[in-house]
Amino acid sequence: MIVEHRTYTFRPGTVDSWMKKYEAEGLPVQKKHLNRFLGLYVSEIGHLHTTVLMWGYDSLADREARRAAMYGDPEWQKFIGEIWALNAIQSQDVMIMNPAPFSPGV
To answer: Which residues are in the NIPSNAP domain (predicted)?
Structure first.
């Protein structure tokens, strides 16, 4: 399994409204397409106004196919358009993480 690790930095005061919208509208669409939701974490100490979102995939090809299907979904297009219109996200960083040979499940 590979892990997609997404870090989002938000404008101060916008994380809570983004999370409510994401939980209600974005996450259900992503779960339908991306399948293996590993978690969403919110910073409390350190870089504030930051979230980390993680998804698991069998391979890069699996990720590519699943994300292509999601991008083709009209529900996702509606959601992501509304998210960008909020102008809440200041930056995003996406990493693909490979497990170390001694990681659980390898």
So the answer is: 4-104
